[in-house]
Amino acid sequence: MTTTHTESTLRDRFVVLTGGSSGIGRALAAQLAARGASVLVGSRRKIADDLQHRTLDLASLASVSEFAASILALGRPIDVLVLNAGVHVPWSRETTPDGHELHWQVNYLSNFLLTHLLLDACRKSGLKQIVYVGSEAHRLAPIAAGPLSGFWHHYAVSKEAATRFFLLLQELHPDLRVQIISPGYVATEIHRHKSRITAWLERLSSRVRSPEDAAREILRVIELPQATSVYWDRGNPATPSRRARNVAGAEALWQESVASVRHILPDAVPCMRIANFARTWSAFGPEVSQPANVAELAALVCRAADAGRQVRIVGQRHSYNDSFYSRTAMISIARLNRIHGLDPDAGTLTCEAGITIDEVCAYLDARGYALRFCGNHGQQTLAGALATGTHGYGRDGGLMSELVTAMTVLGPDGRLFHASAEDDLRALRLGLGTLGVVVAVTLAVRRSSPCVYRLASMPRHDFIARLDELARSSEYLRFTQHPFADAAMLYLTIDATTEEYRSTEPVRYTGSPAGGVAWLAVPWLRMPAVRRVLGRAASVSRRGFSVVVPFSTSLFIRDGVMTNKSQGEDLLRRIGLRAFNRNDWLNMELAIPRDRFPEFAQLFQENLPRMSAFSMSHPYYACRVVGAAQNVLLGPNFGRDVVFVDIHVDPRARSSDRFLRAVEAEALGALSARPHWGKVFFAGHDTLRTLYPPTNFAEFADAKRRFDPESVFSNAYTRRVLGV
User: Fold this and answer.
1) Within 35-76, where are the H helices?
2) What phi-psi label fits residue 439: left (phi over 0), alpha (psi between -120 and 50 degrees) or beta?
3) Among residues 63, 31, 28, which one has the least CA distance to residue 44?
4) Alpha helices, DSSP H only, in 243-338?
5) CA-CA distance, 250 to 680, in Å (whole number)?
6) What are the pLDDT digits (tens) for 251-296?
7) If you placed Cys at 420, which of 33, 406, 579, 642 could pair as Cys (CB 3.0 to 4.6 Å)?
8) Which residue, 285, 385, 291, is CA-closest to 333?
9) What's the rounded Cα separation, in Å, for the pair 277 and 274?
10) Are strands 476-481 and 488-496 parallel, antiparallel or unpaired?
């Protein structure tokens, strides 16, 4: 929520107020005018005061549309939008000309429509405030309709819906200041439909307030220099009902409402809770559009750009942060997944960017080719992998972005641009989705040939001392803390060999993590004390294997190579994967300069939170060694050999956030580490730019000005980490 304004800032501010011909609205209009605000009232009856007026009947969606059009025609930003008009007709069910129940339309649906029609005008203003006059009666909505509840049921349901909507609106638009204010029982014309006996009983059981008192209270909340709550009850911060805060209910309500006003808001989309693949981050956002071809994609982008909306491309959401998220427009290119062809002479593969890594792998495997570098999550789209710097490992590099030799990018004007010049590609290869929509990609590939896949272990101190030697001598190297031996490292190497792959059967890879009865073993194996005992009993720290296999992208995206046909061994591997690979945990990844890794290992140990040996929440890390590259401006391995350290922490553990912050601060400050763009990190662009050569961020900013000058493809994430 925005904050910072005082009473004096209402002077000369433009305020639009509904229901201002009587009651709270009339009193509030007068008090706003006394503050020097320019007030425009929307109501069915002409107001007597010397204020601007437009006719507005919330029982007619056409009237709402006409009212909004007349406001927008003024060309003025709306500093404060006060939605005060409402109705309460007890003991009856009336239907509007639009076919909706009267309370539902007047108290909720018309306000949903009016808010959307005026939203951009509110966002362009200085104060950016939206105020809805609600009611504590929303808490009565769960009580089923019946003879005794007919007095308030329709009213309560409509007020609950409005409360749900405006709570969600604040979450979707934190740049706005949205407030729902319940004034209590106020003596106004809203009670005119009640019988004398009913009105008398209500007054007897309530603290009756005058419209002037209620208006002063609302104005006080509007003028607060800092908003401490979205929901207010009689001038005090409060919490709305649990049902009003229900996520599933909010999504369903939004979808129903969009359908009801589709004829007026044809471009409106349902709202949904969107989460990353691990469900460690989520937020409300517009439903993700899925164009079937480039023409449909261009139309969606142009429509959003013309409306001033910011667009983000959503893949499989294999991120642990909000890099893919937009509050206004999200588009998936998953249906743009065709392969254009393999060029054996050039050693390249050209395909659409919505294809998954699994699909690329299968296509190349069938033709005897592979990617030199690849991430380990096969469901990722190629566009998403490139945008965030997804990497594998390798002596001569490791980022998938390094393999890009050409790109086709769709700009904010809907036009396609084919990039093959190195000056363009240095920024586009890893663009964080902020330079345009990557539609097609050409990647360098290599022929498959025999290689040695070797798994081994070594005492921790010896391994760290020999890390540089191993990295130089191995074409591919990754390692992790040994799960069964605290004092050892488990490491994997892949190297070319002159030996032949002699088997007539295809290579078998470790299957999916264990389920069923085998799942019962998993919780025990997450306890370090249990793993130590099992490790000593089985002497697993001395076990390893070496096997010759064809080089394949599957070596990176599968969980391991099977060396025999033992079902028991396969089961143990799958149990281990479930126990040790915690994709549902928070994940921070830091690119540590390779020669500084011993220092990182020490600071990691020093910052570990104290936990029982029987706890299942111990942080752990796994590492991939990546060589330096020069062709990706925002590559964490730009100009240096690094060890990507993949840190996992339990999001439920209270110590996790503090631990990650401490590790990041020390690693960035003392070791000049660079964070992975798609994982959890806390540094902003002021810090991040100091971790790269001085010209890198400047070159990227120049590319941003060329490819997306109006920042159509920016979002809160890119502004936070890049400043664009």
Assistant:
1) 61-72
2) alpha
3) 63
4) 247-260, 294-306
5) 28
6) 899 999 999 999 999 878 888 888 888 788 888 889 899 999 999 9
7) 406
8) 291
9) 10
10) antiparallel
